[in-house]
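Provenance

Sequences were taken from public entries as deposited. Structures were produced by running a predictor on each sequence independently, with no templates supplied. The record for Adhesin major subunit pilin from Pseudomonas libanensis is shown for reference.
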Amino acid sequence: MFKKFAFAASLTAIALSASPAFAAGEASHTVNLKANIPTTVFHAQPRDPNWGRDETMNYNLVSGELSPLSAIYDIRNTNGSVHAYIEGGPAVLFNGDATQNIALTTTLNGVTLTGTPQEVVNEADSTPGVGAEMRIAAAKPSATQRGSYTAVMPVVFDAVLPVTP
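Predicted structure for Adhesin major subunit pilin:
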């Protein structure tokens, strides 16, 4: 009888001591944070921090055109003007077949961007800072241009010192 009691008591002790271990749990989650605080002298960044992640140009079945994209960029240079260009020249939508490329036209503050730096904000406007619209429009796809297209378009902004005569 004593052996049965000792065995039952030890099982009870094990069960009770293990119960809190199974009842109490732990959950964790990692939060990655970042912050971008631009300098007061020069900056050029989209007002919407999510702009440029994965933008979609929707196809209109009636007109046969892709919808344009636009975003406002906050641009400032307290010591001159701001020039911009597309690294590698104007971008295209690509589906894996270079003969099927769809041309993209990108304007910033009304200036069409190419592979050559051009003034997009003059010195007078860039000193206090300006909100400038970037607009990306695709050429109308032909009847043979079908499928999934992508593009990568690195836009470079240059702070240009004033030219003194």
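The radius of gyration is 30 Å.
The chain has one domain: 42-160.
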